[in-house]
TrEMBL record:
<feature type="binding site">
    <location>
        <position position="319"/>
    </location>
    <ligand>
        <name>substrate</name>
    </ligand>
</feature>
<keyword id="KW-0732">Signal</keyword>
<dbReference type="InterPro" id="IPR014027">
    <property type="entry name" value="UDP-Glc/GDP-Man_DH_C"/>
</dbReference>
<feature type="binding site">
    <location>
        <position position="83"/>
    </location>
    <ligand>
        <name>NAD(+)</name>
    </ligand>
</feature>
<dbReference type="Pfam" id="PF00984">
    <property type="entry name" value="UDPG_MGDP_dh"/>
</dbReference>
<dbReference type="GO" id="GO:0003979">
    <property type="term" value="F:UDP-glucose 6-dehydrogenase activity"/>
</dbReference>
<dbReference type="InterPro" id="IPR001732">
    <property type="entry name" value="UDP-Glc/GDP-Man_DH_N"/>
</dbReference>
<keyword id="KW-0520">NAD</keyword>
<dbReference type="GO" id="GO:0051287">
    <property type="term" value="F:NAD binding"/>
</dbReference>
<feature type="binding site">
    <location>
        <position position="35"/>
    </location>
    <ligand>
        <name>NAD(+)</name>
    </ligand>
</feature>
<dbReference type="InterPro" id="IPR036291">
    <property type="entry name" value="NAD(P)-bd_dom_sf"/>
</dbReference>
<dbReference type="Pfam" id="PF03721">
    <property type="entry name" value="UDPG_MGDP_dh_N"/>
</dbReference>
<feature type="binding site">
    <location>
        <begin position="248"/>
        <end position="252"/>
    </location>
    <ligand>
        <name>substrate</name>
    </ligand>
</feature>
<feature type="binding site">
    <location>
        <position position="152"/>
    </location>
    <ligand>
        <name>NAD(+)</name>
    </ligand>
</feature>
<feature type="binding site">
    <location>
        <begin position="149"/>
        <end position="152"/>
    </location>
    <ligand>
        <name>substrate</name>
    </ligand>
</feature>
<feature type="binding site">
    <location>
        <position position="262"/>
    </location>
    <ligand>
        <name>NAD(+)</name>
    </ligand>
</feature>
<dbReference type="InterPro" id="IPR008927">
    <property type="entry name" value="6-PGluconate_DH-like_C_sf"/>
</dbReference>
Length: 428
């Protein structure tokens, strides 16, 4: 099938590579000329394990910055543009509006338009209305909502092995679900076919629930601290109950990334627009927003003043196996530490410091360069190489003894054997 994907970000590019591997004839488009040039030259604009390799093996995938003409050529169009947050928390659908405007001129033959972007409930119905209002015949298209659930760092695997495929269709649409299923025919997955708003909300509900699990365990970790108990025992024990499940119960500095913070805010905004009170949504975000404060308090309890102290921060990205720093708690921690007068030296295997921190934080190209002479070390992102760090060496080059484990992943006894003091959250 000839398929056009609009948006060459994590979702659009991964989708294009996955569908090309199924034999579809793919055009991946983006208005960002630089990005398209880079892709045409066989490179990808972000770090995502396995994707570059897979891209090099794709025979039937082309790239174009000519979005409108590419859409004209294809009977199936996937929309995978970003929906970043506005300052009021609502989703910014500017990029989506530009796609709709292009679509209104590109639809001359029947199109199945499939939205992959995470969009507030009601958006896909509005796309249909907007297209009709701009003169497109309602017989020439159907709109489908087909959200993605991929994790950065595992994007291609998740795209090829989803635990479900959600298809939201318009009320009288009896053809699109079959079209979507035929596109994905190589994937063995349960299908959930629902309304457009149902599909839009499934995506938000999924991220809300996962974020809630993290905030739940982080709040439990605070209570564990008060009772000198180990949160990891609690995570393990409750996780063995299949009704709870063991995933997303890792206590630490909290969640970040391009999805959870943005989607929870957008869901709250969408609820408020319909005068629906949200209690849990707000609590989940509040716990996450206040989690770093716990660590600052902890560091302060070990150091009389933070002013002039050298802090080694390991990890810049919001989680391992990505160079993405959007809403990274590691970055927020560095902001807090520099505000308190620390000289921060950071290291990350893939991510680069954001512009606004470059004046205040030194990014080192080796972990030990960041660690040397540090008064304390903060582990912010659990990259495997930090877990396997030579802690004896670290102890021998650090000035201070304190290691703060922001992800509760280090072996405390091992560090203590090296003469270090290791503290996490909710760990005695
Ligand atoms: C998430 C969803 O998992 C994915 O389904 C959706 O499509 C997009 O948003 P992603 O943002 O890539 O994916 O990251 P994820 O692996 O879910 O982690 C999100 C954040 O939660 C990270 O900052 C991570 O460090 C944190 N986290 C995760 C915890 O603090 N504790 C946990 O137990 C799990």
């Amino acid at each position: 099938m000839k398929i056009c994907v609009v948006g060459a970000g994590y979702v659009g590019l991964t989708l294009s590579v996955a569908l090309a591997s199924f034999g579809h004839d793919m055009i991946c488009t983006d208005k960002d000329l630089k990005k398209i040039e880079q892709l045409k030259n066989g490179d990808i604009p972000f770090y995502e394990p396995g994707l570059l390799d897979a891209l090099h093996h794709c025979g039937n995938l082309s790239f174009s910055s000519e979005v409108k003409s590419s859409m004209e050529e294809c009977p199936v169009i996937f929309i995978a543009v970003g929906t970043p947050p506005r300052s009021d928390g609502s989703a910014d659908t500017k990029a989506l509006q530009s796609v709709i405007s292009d679509l209104s001129e590109a639809i001359r033959s029947y199109k199945t338009i499939i939205t992959k972007s995470t969009v507030p409930p009601g958006t896909n119905e509005n796309i249909a209305k907007q297209l009709i209002a701009s003169g497109v015949s309602e017989n020439l298209f159907n709109i489908v909502s087909n959200p993605e659930f991929l994790r950065e760092g595992n994007a291609l695997y998740d795209m090829l092995h989803p635990d479900k495929t959600v298809i939201g269709v318009q009320e009288k649409d009896h053809v699109s679900a079959a079209i979507v299923k035929s596109i994905y025919k190589h994937i063995d997955t349960p299908y959930v076919v629902t309304s457009l708003a149902g599909a839009e909300l499934i995506k938000y509900a999924s991220n809300f629930f996962l974020a809630a699990k993290i905030s739940f365990i982080n709040e439990m970790a605070r209570i564990c601290e008060a009772y000198h108990s180990d949160i990891s025992d609690i995570s393990r024990a409750i996780g063995l109950d299949p009704r709870i499940g063991g995933h997303f119960l890792q206590a630490g500095i909290g969640y970040g990334g391009s999805c959870f913070p943005k989607d929870l805010q957008a869901l709250q905004f969408a609820a408020q627009e319909k005068n629906t009170e949200t209690y849990l949504l707000q609590a989940v975000q509040h716990i996450n927003d206040t989690q770093l404060g716990l660590y600052i308090k902890k560091i302060k309890s070990f150091c009389d003043t933070l002013h002039g102290k050298k802090a080694a921060v390991l990890g810049i990205s919001f989680k391992p196996h990505t160079d993405d720093i959007r809403n990274s708690q590691a970055v927020r921690m560095m902001e807090r530490l520099t505000e308190l007068g620390c000289h921060v030296h950071a290291y990350d295997p893939a991510a680069v410091l954001p512009e606004h921190l470059r004046q205040h934080v030194t990014q080192q190209s080796q972990a030990f360069d960041a660690i040397a002479e540090s008064d304390f070390l903060f582990l912010a992102t659990e990259w495997p190489e930090f877990l396997a760090l030579d802690w004896k060496k670290a102890a021998s080059i650090m000035k201070g003894r304190l290691v703060i484990d922001g992800r509760n992943v280090l072996k405390k006894e091992l560090l203590e054997d090296c003469g270090l003091i290791c503290t996490g959250v909710g760990r005695p």
